[in-house]
Structure formats: structure tokens, C-alpha cells
Amino acid sequence: MSGLNRACRRVAGSGLIAAVALAAGAVLVGAPAQTTPLVFQSVSAGTNHACGVTAQHAAYCWGRNVEGELGNATVTSTCSDAGARCSTKPVRVEGGLAFTVISAGNNFTCGVTTVGTAYCWGAGTQGQLGNGDQASASRPERVSVEGVAFQTISAGYSHACAVSTTGAAYCWGSNAGGRLGTGASLTGGHTTPALVAGQLAFRTISAGYYHTCGVTRAGAIYCWGRNEQGETGNGATTAHGAPARVTGDFGGRSVFAAVQFDFSCAVGRDSTLYCWGANCYGQLGVDSTSEQCGTPAMPCSSTPKAVHATGAFQSVSAFFSHVCALNAAGAVSCWGENNQGQLGIGSGSGNTSTPSPVEGGASYKAVATGRQFSCAVTADGAAQCWGRNAEGQLGTGNLENRTAPTPVVGP
What we know:
The radius of gyration is 19 Å and the shape is globular. Strands 17-18-19-21-20 form a 5-stranded antiparallel beta sheet. It is mainly β and 411 residues long. Helices cover 2% and strands 41% of the residues. The protein has one domain: Methylamine Dehydrogenase, Chain H (7 Propeller), CATH 2.130.10. The protein has one helix at 3-12, and strands at 40-45, 49-54, 59-64, 86-92, 99-104, 108-113, 118-122, 137-142, 150-155, 159-164, 169-174, 189-195, 202-207, 211-216, 221-225, 240-245, 256-259, 263-267, 273-278, 292-293, 298-306, 313-319, 322-327, 332-336, 352-357, 364-369, 373-378, 383-387, 402-407. The protein contains 1 helix and 29 strands.
């Protein structure tokens, strides 16, 4: 391992769950075959679990379940010889709620129902469930806010954010580094939704590990929170507790933004991809960058860089050290770290700064990146995942890593 990668890993390991490689000879549990797979509208990937919403608005989750993040009223399911609490197959979220969107975070999950009510479940020690206390929950808990209807939501590391139908943004949970965006404070937190400062009208929002970004209805991108690697994209490397506008116009009106550990990506109005922040593993999608940020110093860019990719893109998803993007033709490309096969290119090694098509040639309508794994939804609603699978996060019915898209089995 190079000195640079050692430095990157020292910084990246702060506050994160250490990556655990799948041991050779691990016992495979469950049958991978399934004749009646679920039909999904969308999918979301977190640190070690994933969730999806079906065409009937039912929510299903799979993977790690230590804190109740699967939402099936239990944390006792085991799916490995080590006794890990997880599920290798999708389990339905309790409560019979009809969801329009779901977001898998570090060890908790949030969703918005068809009537605009927000719910969260899983770990709650930092107030990230938004229900007024710091207790964990293994089934959906209603987010405590009155008179507000939400349209979208995003679960991060230990905080969550949502946008109301009027465009107001709210965040709750840990405020370390200013990630809630409520003002000048870089500490503390909120156990119920707090209004993001600036009176901006947002269209979408993305909560990362230590920072947050949102796209306004006018198309501008704003970010706030920790900024050691330039991840808020305003040319600085200091944290800020209120929204700051990202440098550049992205070719016009920005349409989508994704944010994770210490970098961010967006799709511009011209359908071009942009990324900024840390670039240890090539996750910015550029060959190199001369800028150095952080302690120890590592490659980064504190302003957006155009990703070296051709074609018209419609969405992008970023998580920790890799990125996947969906183009207008329904093809998915990924880049960045590939130590667990999370790029889906048929191998489990070799980082790349060049967006590379995932194997299989399927047509997709949604893509999501998790911690060392990725998932996507095909045009006909089938969910597929690839990468690390030590806790069943691929939903394939076993614990076998995959380096190419593999179908998520039925429940």
C-alpha cells in the first residue's frame, strides 16, 4: 500500500466502522433462487444495509440489523456463522406504511409516506430518528414536527435531513462540524427537526457522514458542515454551520446532488457530472489534482471538477470512496475505490478514476452506492446489488461478495 493510501485510510477511518473483509470459506446462508422477486421503484444503500420502495409503496430492507435499521421489529435475526444480526433477504418494514421515498443511512433508515409524513428507525443515540429522544427503535418512529409535509428525505451518518413541500429544509441528529446547517454552531445537536438557516427553498437534499448539500429550486447548490477536504465546494477547507453556495454554475441549473464521507458530486443542467472534495481513490473522476487538503495532506479539490465521462447523465450517487452514475440511456457507470467489487466491473481490485460501465448491460432507472457496495433498479423494477456482502447487504440470499450486478431475491 502506498504512503498516500495509508494517509487516506487514516483520515477516512475516523468515526467510521472499519471495513471487514469477507473471510475465505464463509458459510453461505439461504437459497439464492427466487421465482417471485419484488418490483422496486427505487433503492437506497447505506453503510451495511439497503432498502427499497416497491411499486405498491411498500418498504423492504436487507443487510445489517444490529440497531433495528431494517425496521422489521427485531434485531435478533442471524445470517452468519459469527452470529451477525442481519438478513440476507429483503424483510418488510413494519407498520403497513405506504412510502414514496426511503433512505438508508449509517445504522438507521428514514422514509417519507405518500401523505408527506416522515418516519425513521434504527440507531437513535444522536437523536437521528427525530422523534424527540435518543433511543433506538426497530420499527418506524414518526419524526416529531407539526404542520409540515415532506417530499424527500436523506439519512446520513448520525443525522438526517428532509425537504418540505414548500421547499423548507430541516435537519436533526448530531451537529458536529455544523452538519445540520442551523447557523454558526459546529457542535451540539437536535432530537427533532431544526430549520436550516438561510431561508432557501430546496428541491432536494443529501445528508452525508459529516456534511450536507442541497439543491435549491432555483438550481443552485449549497453545502454545509465539515470541510477538511473541500467537500462543501466553496473553495475553502474550514467548516461552516450554515449553507454556503458551491462555486460554479455547473453549466446552468443543477438538477441533482449526492454527498458522502468527504466528497460530493452533482449533475448539471447540461447533464455533465461534477465532483469535489477528497480524491484518494479517484472518486472525483479526474486523473489527478494538484491541490492537497487535510492532515495528513491528500489529493482533493475544494471546487467542483468536471468528471471525465461522456454522455448525458440524469443522476449520481456517492458513498465514502466510490461513485456510480446513471445516464439518459439507462446505463450505469462507477468509479473510485474497488477493493470489494463495489464498481461492478467484474473484478474486486484496482481503483479507477475513469467511469466504467457495470457488467451485464442491463437498462436501469435508479442507482445507489453504499459502503463498499452498490445497488440499482432495472427498467422493469428488478433490484440488483454488487460488492461487499459480509452482512447480507446485497440481498442475494447468501454472504458471498459479488463483482458484478446480482439480483436481489424475494422475501
